[in-house]
Amino acid sequence: MKYKMDIIKSISLINEYRAVAGYATAEGTRKFMENAFKNGMANSHFRSFNNLNFSSLGIGTYLGQLTAEDDIDLENAIYHSLKSGAVNVIDTAINYRSMKSEKNIGHAIKRLIEDKIISRDQVFISTKNGYITNDGDYPTIDVLEYMHKMYISQGIIDSKDISSGYNVLNPNYIRKCIDKSLTNMQLDTIDLVYIHNAYESWFQDISRSEFNEKIRKVFQIYEEYRSKNKIRYYGMATWTCFRLPRNEEGYLSLEDMVRIAEDVAGKDHGFRFIQLPYNLAYREAYSLRNQTVNSDNDLTILEACNKLNIGVFTSVPLLQAKLFDVKIPDYLGIDNQLLKIVQITRSTPNVIAPLLGQKKLNHVKENIELAKVAPLNNSEFNEAIKILN
Question: pLDDT per residue over 339-353, tens digit each?
Answer without folding.
Answer: 999 999 999 999 999
